[in-house]
Amino acid sequence: MASGIRATVKFDSPGECPLAQFSETADTTINHVSSSVALPNSTGSVTEFFAAVDDLPDDVDREPVFSYGSSNLYRIAHDGDVCCPCECLGQFGCPVHRYTAAEGVLTLVFHAEDFRQLQDVMAEFRERYTSVDVQQLLQPPLEGTPEERVFVNRGKLTDRQLEVLQAAYEKGYFERPKRANATEIAAELGITQSTFTEHLVAAQSKIFEDVL
Fold first, then answer.
1. Which of 59, 144, 164, 174 would disulfide-bridge 148, Cβ 3.0–4.6 Å?
2. SS (H, E, C) the chain
3. Rounded-to-integer distance, Cα 83 and Cα 42, Å
4. 5 vs 11, 36, 115, 167, CA distance in Å?
5. Domain residues of the chain, as ranges?
6. Quick one: pLDDT at residue 86?
7. Percent of the chain predicted with pLDDT > 90
8. Rounded to an integer, what distance in angstroms lies between the CA atom of residue 21 and that of residue 198?
9. Largest Cα–Cα distance of the chain, in whole Å?
10. What is the mean pLDDT of residues 174-186?
């Protein structure tokens, strides 16, 4: 069985990453990226990405290479200097499996060969980028395709929402038939039934945003 690790890492301040800068300046989300085209007689590379942008701000000096309906294809050349997380990751021989850049925040998904390589990569990330945050780590065997596996950010829940959700799950509220109803669980938590329902619905809505 493979011993690799799939890592999802987020950078709130990804240095001079051109993808993150473009997403912030153009107020768009970038999630279709291809890279690793070598420049002639150079250690640099070329990255292409799609962005649904009609009119770029005046301070963005970049023209689309091709247009697909409402999306334009842009191209960025890298000179080989390590200035962004993507290039830093390349030093370890780890291609980026998936990019997402939105509002200046960069999220990368990559596969480390083993835990030691993951430690080395993360140590380098933390030294260069203080805002790095590990979102998810997965090891095989896994069911489903990579696209079907999603990260659920529990941090979006308030303390009360998490408390209500955990209590509902542990007391069998979601089972059929229910082992406990909303009134009973609310009483144990010391809140009203309407407050219990309000927090539970809010928690479920936030989780569904990540799952669906």
1. 144
2. CCCCEEEEEEECCCCCCHHHHHHHHCCCEECCEEEEEECCCCCCEEEEEEECCCCCCCCCCCCCCEEECCEEEEEEEECCCCCCHHHHHHCCCCCEEEEEEECCEEEEEEEECCHHHHHHHHHHHHHHCCCEEEEEEECCCCCCCHHHCCCCCHHHCCHHHHHHHHHHHHCCCCCCCCCCCHHHHHHHHCCCHHHHHHHHHHHHHHHHHHHC
3. 16
4. 19, 22, 7, 32
5. 5-142, 154-211
6. 83
7. 22
8. 38
9. 72
10. 91
Q: How far apart are CA 20 and CA 100, in angstroms?
A: 9
Q: Look-up: residue for tokens 């619905």?
A: 201
Residue type present at position 180 = A
What amino acid occupies position 2? A
Residue 38 has pLDDT above 60, yes or no: no
Arithmetic mean of pLDDT over the chain: 82
- β-strand partners of 67: 72
**Residue 108 in tokens:** 């990368």
Count how many residues are written for the chain: 212
